[in-house]
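We give its fold:
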Amino acid sequence: MKNGPFAGASTKQQKRRPVEKKRLSAGYTMNNNVKFIRGGAAYFNRMLQMIDEAKHSVHLQTYIFDDDGTGSLVADALKNAAKRGVKVYMMPDGYASKVLSRPFIRELRLAGVYFRFFEPLVRSKYFYFGRRLHHKIIVTDTRYAMVGGLNITERYNDRPGYKAWLDFAVWVEGEIVKELCTLCWKTWKGFPAKTGALPCEQEYLQAPSIPGASSRVRMRINDWVRNKHEISRSYIEMLETAQSHVVILCSYFLPGETFRKKLSLAAKRGIKIKIILAGLSDIKLAKYAERYIYDWLLRNDIAIYEYQGNVLHGKVSVCDTTWLTIGSYNINNISAHASIELNLDIHDENFAAGVEKVFEDIIEKECIHVTRAMLVQKRSLLKRFIWWCSYQTVKGLIYLFTFYFRKKN
C-alpha cells in the first residue's frame, strides 16, 4: 500500500516533527483487537451474536431504533438476554426514535430490559431544545464493543432484493471497551459530575487477557453541551499532519469554514485528497447543497467520487495508510455543534491498509469520478441556482436541529 495509488509524499514530508508524533499518539489505549465491518447483514449478525453471547451486561445506544423487521429482530435478542439474567440497557434518541410504539416499549420492559429515551435539555408539548444522541454503540460484558454509523432499521440491513445503505462499523475488544462502557453509563445517567463506582471496572477485570492485541484506539466525542470537540480535532489533525494522502468517505458532506481552510491548505502542500460522497441521497436538499461546493473542491485539486449503489451513509476517513477515524460524525456543522457524536481513532497500519483497499474497490467498481468537464456539462444556470439555494438553506438547519416548535395535532 505504501507504493500503491496513494504514494507520492516527498522525503521531507515523510519526516514527522516531534510535535506531530505527540499529537497523533495522545490518548490512545494500547492493547486492542479491531475488525472492520461493512454494514448490512454483517453488522446485524455481529450485533445479534454479541447480544446472544453476553453473560453480564449489554448497553445499546443509537439515534434511530425502529420497530420494523430489523428492529424487532434486535429487540427480541435483547429481551432474550434480559430473561436469562443479563442486565440490558437500551437508549435510543427521544426525537429520532419517537416512532417506537408504546406496546413495543412495554414488551421490552416486561422482559426486563431497562429502557430510556435520551431526552433534550428542555421539552414541552410545543417545543424542543437541546442536542440529540447521534452515536451508535453496543457494548457487551465490558469485553466487546461495536461503534459505527448504522441505525437500527430496515434500510441499513440487507434483505432479499434490497441492498443496504452503504455504512461501516468497527468491532473492538481490549482496553478501549472499558472507556466505551463508562461512556454508556454516563450517557444513561445523564452525564452527572460524579458517577461513583461503575460495573465497567469489575467486568473488565474479569475479562481474559487478549493475546496479540496490538491496535491503538482512542475514543473521540463531540458534545457542545459538555464543550467536547474531539472528533472535530481529529479531522483537523488528519489534514494538518498528513504526509501523502487522505481518503474521506462521508454522507451529508458540508464542511464549515475551518474545515474547508484545512482541506485547502493540505491540498496546497501536495496532499492527495479523495472524497467519496453519495450519488443518491435520502435528503435531496443536502445532496444539492453538497454539489454547490463541488466547484470549490475541484478548484483545490480535491478528487470527488459519487457512490452509485444505494444511499451512502458511512463516515470514515483514512490518513497515510496509517490511521483512521470512524463513527457517527458527519463533516458538517450539525455534527460539529449540535449532536452528541462518537468516533474511534484507530492507529494500526495493517488495519488502515485494509480499509483503504475497501475504499479503492468502492471507487473503482461503484463510483463515478466527478471531473470539472462533467460538472460544467451537467450544471445549468437553473441547477446552479437550486444548489446555491439548497446550500444557504442547509447552513441554517443547525438551529432547527437544536430548537424547533412542535406543530399542534
